Amino acid sequence: MTTPDTPSPTPEEAIRPLLLMAEDEEDTASLLQFLLERAGYVVLHARDGMEAQGLVDTHDHLDLILLDINLPFINGLDVLTHIRRKPGWERVPVIMLTADGSEQDVRQALRAGANDYILKPFNPRELTVRLDRFRKYLV
């Protein structure tokens, strides 16, 4: 589903997985966007939790979601909870990508429904390998 603000995908984009990236740090977001597009994803970039939640609510589906925990307005864990409560979205892979690496943060994210947890700074090759683990399940 597209909205007036969301352009229709091109034929090439229609066959590429759609990934939501919620990242407020512009340098990190630029690097991630480059890596993800090079890996074959169509990337939607949310700069805060409110924008991420809005993108989830205005799309019929997303193939993969990459969330930072420390997002402005609504934190990544609350966005994750929102995603998991949305009917039909229980199986969408959500990967937390964050600098918060305490055992409590990891446990909290996994309990809330995160499928994986990657710490910043991240290794680009490791990130793409982890994403590829979920990509093989995308239809």
UniProtKB/TrEMBL annotation:
Q: Which PROSITE patterns did the record assign?
A: RESPONSE_REGULATORY, TATD_1
Query: Where are residues bearing 4-aspartylphosphate located in the sequence?
Result: 68
GO cellular-component terms in the record? cytosol; protein-DNA complex
Which domain of life, per UniProt? Bacteria
> Would I find Phosphoprotein among this entry's keywords?
yes
Q: Does the keyword Plastid apply?
A: no
Entry GO MF terms:
phosphorelay response regulator activity; transcription cis-regulatory region binding
Q: Which SMART domains match?
A: REC
**Which UniProt key words apply to this protein?**
DNA-binding, Phosphoprotein, Transcription, Transcription regulation, Two-component regulatory system
PANTHER family associated with the record: REGULATOR OF RPOS, TWO-COMPONENT RESPONSE REGULATOR ORR33
Q: What is this protein called?
A: Response regulator
Lineage of origin? Bacteria, Pseudomonadati, Nitrospirota, Nitrospiria, Nitrospirales
